[in-house]
Amino acid sequence: MNKKKHIATNLITETARRLLKEKLGHFALYNGTVYTPWESFYGGVVVQKGKIKQLFEGEPPPELVKDGYLLFDCHDNRIVPGFVDIHVHGAKGLDFTLASEEELISAMLYHGTTGGTTAMAPTLVSAPLVHLNQAAERINRVSKSLNPGTPQVLGIHLEGPFLNPWYKGAHIEEYLKEPEPELINDLIASIGDNLKIVTLSPELPHAMEAISRLRRQKVIAALGHSGATVEEVQEAVACGLSHAVHTYSAMRRFHHRSPGALGAVLTNDALSAEIIADGVHTHPAAVDLFFRAKPGDKTVLATDALAVCGLPDSECYLGNKKIISREGKAFLENGNLAGSLLTMNRALAGAIEMSALSMEAVLPAATINPARVIGVDKCKGSLEQGKDADIVLLDDHYDTLLTICRGIPLTNDVS
Fold first, then answer.
1. How far apart are CA 16 and CA 403, in angstroms?
2. Catalytic residue selected from 85, 95, 304, 390
3. CB within 8 A of 238, min separation 6: which ones?
4. Which residues pair with 33 in a beta bridge?
5. Domains in the chain, start-ordered, CATH in brackets?
6. Are the CB atoms for 339 and 304 separated by under 8 Å?
7. How many angstroms separate the CA atoms of 398 and 348, rounded?
């Protein structure tokens, strides 16, 4: 381990975390490259009471020490906004659809400490409606009980059950349903305001009505697992469809005479769109095309991480479906790809490498863009005065050295 890496590793010892906690967010990070995320400069960030008080270029202002701020030397590492993951199913053997409340927090902490995720939308897979409601109740209780030094729950992402069986991917077909008005109304009523995203296939019967209903309820309607035509997607956008999950995956393929759902996602600037930048779901050229095609404020990095994320080669479950991980890939028992093993820091690294774009060009896709999609960009997603002090310290290899959630360093303590 080189000297810089050794010093940076010492930065995240339990002693350092305790010191920061004792200051209750009254500290400054300095001697790093700050990414806002749109621009970068040498300097630091001042934090007070869980909020960003100011950014500064160069050395820390002398009055900080006089005013009692703890100064934290970042040793020339990268200071970036906390990552926002709006499509994540679990980690460390724990699936959000099945997990207990304690297990939910454990999986969230893994994504925070390892991946730099400071806010997320726990994502539920297609399941019997009673199970989805039970899972949503657990997530709702967790979201109300979390302390600031824990990744924040932004709401629930319901991926299914309103999906096209021909593009079901890892979803269990017997649980899939058409988005009939009564079912949509029941889900809205039972999950409540914590329902933030519903992924559905817009070509299904009743889908346009469902999209309109979701929009009126201020729930994001997202395209996914879809065999829709360009025309069907255009109609859905007119009804309120605004987002697309895992571009390329489980999606009608592009043809020059029938561009399909993929063609619509890549060319319709009204749609924000996710990509899984792991080099498994998407070839580097496909990642490059994605960032060329979509406007810079419409790109979203998401992990789509499964329970096998963070484990060596193993077997876990996505809902009630067995997932097998081998050599960095997640498969169904039939050999088809499932979700990913990504954390957000690795998604960022993969996207930068495969697109050959700069940090400033790609970082918004992991921070401010997903924050904007889910409606929290006024308080999260960028390093700006007055916003939540959600901050990640990355080294040159995109490894997470320190994660700060709302001014409190993250630990693996679930108490």
1. 12
2. 304
3. none
4. 42, 78
5. 3-81+385-409 (2.30.40.10), 83-373 (3.20.20.140)
6. yes
7. 8
Taking the CA atoms of residue 59, residue 36, residue 344 and residue 218 in that order, the dihedral angle to the nearest 10 degrees is 150
Number of H helices, E strands in the chain: 13, 21
Tokens of residue 131, six digits:
């199970």
What pTM value is reported for the model? Answer: 0.94
Question: Are 137 and 186 in contact, with CB atoms under 8 Å apart?
Answer: no
Encode the chain (415 residues) as per-residue pLDDT tens digits. 455 555 455 555 554 565 555 655 689 999 999 999 999 999 999 999 999 999 999 999 999 988 989 898 899 999 999 999 999 999 999 999 999 999 999 999 999 999 999 999 999 999 999 999 999 999 999 999 888 889 999 999 999 999 999 999 999 999 999 999 999 999 999 999 999 999 999 999 999 999 999 999 999 999 999 999 999 999 999 999 999 999 999 999 999 999 999 999 999 999 999 999 999 999 999 999 999 999 999 999 999 999 999 998 878 877 777 888 887 888 788 878 787 899 999 999 999 999 999 999 999 999 999 999 999 999 999 999 999 999 999 999 999 999 999 999 887 654 3
Report the phi/psi class of residue 275: left, alpha or beta, with left for phi > 0 and alpha for psi in -120 to 50.
beta
Please list, in sequence order, all residues whose beta carbon lies within 8 angstroms of the beta carbon of residue 69, skipping any fewer than 6 positions away.
Answer: 23, 26, 27, 28, 46
- Looking at residue 368, its amino acid is I
Neighbouring residues of 40: CB distance < 8 A, sequence distance ≥ 6: 33, 34, 359, 360
- Name residue, tokens 């990095």: 301
Q: Which residues contact 184 (CB under 8 A, 6 or more apart)?
A: 210, 213, 214
Contact (CB, 8 A) for 391 and 80: yes
Q: Is 288 marked active-site?
A: no
Place of tokens 């109300």: 144
Beta-carbon neighbour count of residue 117 at 10 Å?
33
- Do residues 245 and 199 lie in contact, with contact meaning Cβ atoms separated by under 8 Å? yes
Q: How far is CA 262 from its chain centroid?
A: 21
